[in-house]
Amino acid sequence: MRLFRLAKIIGVFHTYGLDEFVLRDSPSRFLRAIGWLLGKRSFSDSRGARLRMALEALGPIFVKFGQVLSTRPDLIPPDIAEELSKLQDRVPPFPAEDVRRVMEAEYGKKVEERFAQFDWKPVASASIAQVHFAQIQIKVDNAGATHGSTVESRDVAVKVLRPNILPVIDSDIALLRVLAGWVEKFSADGRRLKPREVVAEFDNYLHDELDLVREAANCSQLRRNFEGSHLLYMPEVYWDWCEKSVMVMERLYATPVNQIEALREKGVDIKKLARDGVEIFFTQVFRDGFFHADMHPGNIAVRTEAPHVGQYVGMDFGIVGTLTDNDRRYLAENFLAFFRRDYRRVAMAHIESGWVPKDTRPDELENAVRSVCEPIFARPLADISFGKVLMRLFSVSRRFNVEIQPQLVLLQKTLLNVEGLGRQLDPYLDLWATAQPFLEKWMRDQVGPDAVMKRLTEQGPYLSSALPQVPRLIHQALERYNAPPPPPAPQPILSGWATFWLAVIAICMMAILATLWIPILLD
Predict the structure, then answer these.
(1) Are strands 312-314 and 290-292 parallel, antiparallel or unpaired?
(2) Could you list the active site residues?
(3) Of 100, 200, 377, 512, whose CA is between 20 and 30 Å from 387?
(4) CB–CB of 136/225 below 8 Å?
(5) Is residue 523 exposed (0-12), middle (13-18) or buried (19+ Cβ within 10 Å)?
(6) How far is Cα of residue 73 from the mean position of the Cα atoms in its chain?
(7) What is the pLDDT of residues 148-195, one digit of tens each?
(8) Pair 234, 254: CB distance under 8 Å
(9) What is the domain partition of the chain in residue ranges?
(10) What is the DSSP letter of 75?
(11) pTM above 0.85, yes or no
């Protein structure tokens, strides 16, 4: 079966001309000869578009692989990364019998015993799971807390994993490893692109997505971060109904964000919506260090009922990114330096953060950054794509051996999504002007007196336990400083290698003497 699947993959790649990447550039004369025999073909579509269509033809796992690959512009050319970012899951739903089997295996009960009502017709279907609407009965008290005495009905969305998806994933990933090995062995650029590392990353990512409890935890964290916000609303997770293959959350009534005319008819301020999207992104990144990393239009909707008109709603929380305090500080410095055209500061921020080797010459990196950024500043700010600027910087960074961190690549991919969405809502959106005041305020908050007091408060428990030990530690340090130096360790007369060779010579001398004296003694 695996051989048939491999034959299909090779056939699809040949149909879309992707075999030429390997055959024409291969260091192997044999493979180049095969490419010559097959002949050179011309295609009207770009190489990125052909790769995207080939992955769509191979099915959902390969589509998902292309989506993950689009997040690695540090490894693939920008034109291919941009084309792969257009991939969307378009997968037929699986039947109601399979939905029932998965859910009852998780709950150990009939679906009708866990849900007051369940709609067996799916409302969305993707490569890993599909979604159904349902209704549950939940106990609440007068204050709205659960597990009280009053029973209320809640409308929910139920996400169910595809049955038997793990063997399919493992089989296709095994074939991807084989193809990656071929590319790495026979393609001139194979070793630089590290295809086997990309497949390994994809393997980890897919297996994480197979655990819906993890996704529910991501949703719960994002909801807590935006509690009471007028900008973004995250659905409530009903943990008593969540299992590894089933996730149950609040059903949200909202309009997809790409239905712009429908939103405008319902009174939504579209330009404000575009600016709010930018603010939500930078709030997640810099305030929380925890961000939704799959913010394409299919995962975002907008509420239109009063008093929540224009409030964003998030969906699908399988991919999130996290940033450390150092990452956030250096990112903010980089962004602000870009705004001010301070390329020296950009170079120094890269070196100080460890994103480039410490021996990198700041002036060389500064000149490289200037060559990327300066040409775009001749254009109106509204015409500048910040995401594409970062992609060009990733390309330049290869020269300086920049170690691209996974969380920063997720950030860049999310910024592309946010920027694309913002421009779709408002073609004249000035992302830079919208973000700059937010970043400047955030930087002031980080270095101001309130930030110092916050850090002292956070470190209070540690300081309270460490401060009493300070006098003893100082006393021990002074004693070590005043103590006489220890006597030098006796040095061997001969070094280790000298001793070794002396032993070899002694053994050889003994062997020579033995060959001379043994015959004499025997006589």
Answers:
(1) unpaired
(2) 294
(3) 200
(4) no
(5) exposed
(6) 12
(7) 568 889 999 999 999 988 888 888 888 888 877 877 776 655 555 567
(8) no
(9) 2-88, 91-177+198-225+236-251, 252-447
(10) T
(11) no
